[in-house]
Amino acid sequence: MKAIVESKIPFLSGLLTDETPTEVIVLPANEITPEAVRDADALFVRTRTRCNAALLEGSAVKFIATATIGTDHIDLDWCNARGITVVNAPGCNAPAVAQWMFAAAEALAGSQLQGLTLGVVGVGHVGSIVSRYGESLGMKVMECDPPKGLPLSLEEVAYNADILTFHTPLTTDGQWPTRHMFDSRIASLMKPGAIVMNAARGPVTDTRALLEAPVRCAIDCWEGEPAISQELLEKAEVATPHIAGYSSQGKMRATIMVLEAYKKWLGLPPQSSVIVRPASLTIRPGEALKSYDIMADTRSLKGRPDQFENLRNSYNLRHEL
Q1: How many other CB atoms are found less than 10 A from the CB of residue 47?
Q2: Residue 270 DSSP symbol
Q3: 62-90 b/e (C-beta count within 10 Å ≥ 16 → b)
Q4: Would you name the residues annotated as active-site residues?
Q5: CA-CA distance, 230 to 318, in Å (whole number)?
Q6: How far apart are CA 187 and CA 68, in angstroms?
Q7: Which of 1, 68, 105, 214 sees the fewest Cβ atoms within 10 Å?
Q8: What are the residues facing 117 on neighbouring strands?
Q9: 203 - beta bridge partners?
Q10: What confidence score (pLDDT) does residue 270 get?
Q11: What's the CA dihedral at 267, 273, 276, 278 to 10 degrees?
């Protein structure tokens, strides 16, 4: 077996070599080309590698693992039609994203969040942690997740929220598409000065709507990244280069999850399991911002917006709460 491994996936190449009968080639994302993958059996990537016909047509690839939660960089229909197994790492960075969200909230609204209304859109791995953290701080939590059967509408949650935070995948079709969930109509329902956060996917929030609405912004995921809106960068009081989930623990979870999925695909016995929820679902006032200096990351991006990718790729992984 031969595998191409994106160089930004920590620890994986050594584990593959030690635990599986695999020849490993480590490449940066920009060198994962059709020529590089042509005779590979497996491909391990992150979000900057687009896995579609342009990359994979004519290759031997039959297994793709993305060491991320999202899969919108992978043409799932194309892969499925060709018998290519695709796996991801659901929830791997959920505690880190929740840490980012509350560090941002404390930076903008102060460490005493008690009594504020927190609107959580998307109550999966990340959103469920965010909700529990919010409740532990005495916030009124309103959850919106129609696919899970939760009754509150986005309109009702947005209307009441002091902080509205998005934790959904990016989808463009189906009954509940998430692209531009936050648009000018939703923006018009919000309180002036309310905070909108996007640590999900850039297109979940419409950039123009964010710019025109009288709301405050904390943005980690941007439309068009790495060529992000300079206007939104100026408006956002918290602005980071898509690193909300970049913790050392989250990276290791993702590595173990895709390694175990690959071993299962090979028919090898599993050795590790991963728990994606933090040990405690309670936090103390000010704890998130104390654990993570989110404004240092904001200053870095605002000072060097043309270095979005470099700031992301060279990010010093932080420790979770």
Answers
A1: 21
A2: P
A3: bbbbbbbbbbbbbbeeebeeeebbbbbbb
A4: 201, 225, 242
A5: 26
A6: 30
A7: 214
A8: 140
A9: none
A10: 79
A11: 180
User: What is the pLDDT, as a whole number, of residue 236?
Assistant: 98
Pairing of strands 42-45, 2-6: parallel
Q: Of 173, 137, 183, 144, nearest to 160 (Cα)?
A: 144
Q: 15 CB contacts (<8 Å, ≥6 apart)? A: 255, 259
Q: Which residues of the chain have pLDDT under 70?
A: none
**pLDDT above 70 coverage of the chain, percent:** 100
Contact 212, 234 (CB under 8 A): no
The upper half-sphere exposure of residue 251, i.e. CA atoms within 13 Å in the direction of its Cβ, equals 18
pLDDT at 277: 76
Task: Assess contact for 120 and 94: CB atoms under 8 A.
Answer: no
The answer to whether 19 and 259 have CB atoms below 8 angstroms apart is: yes
Q: How many residues does the chain have?
A: 321
- The closest of 89, 79, 90 to 42, measured between CA atoms, is 79
Beta bridge pairs of residue 66: 45
The model's pLDDT over 262-296, given as tens digits with 9 standing for 90+, comes to 999 999 987 777 777 787 899 999 999 999 999 99
Alpha helices in the chain (DSSP H): 12-19, 34-37, 53-56, 76-81, 94-109, 125-136, 154-160, 184-189, 207-212, 230-235, 248-266, 287-291, 294-303, 308-313
Distance separating alpha carbons of residues 180 and 208, to the nearest angstrom: 10
Residue with tokens 């927190």: 118
- Tell me which residue of 284, 290, 286 sits closest to 320, measured CA to CA: 290
What distance in Å separates the CA atoms of residue 111 and residue 194, rounded to the nearest whole number?
16
Rounded to whole angstroms, how far apart are CA atoms 220 and 241? 6
> Cis before residue 226, ω within 30 degrees of 0?
yes
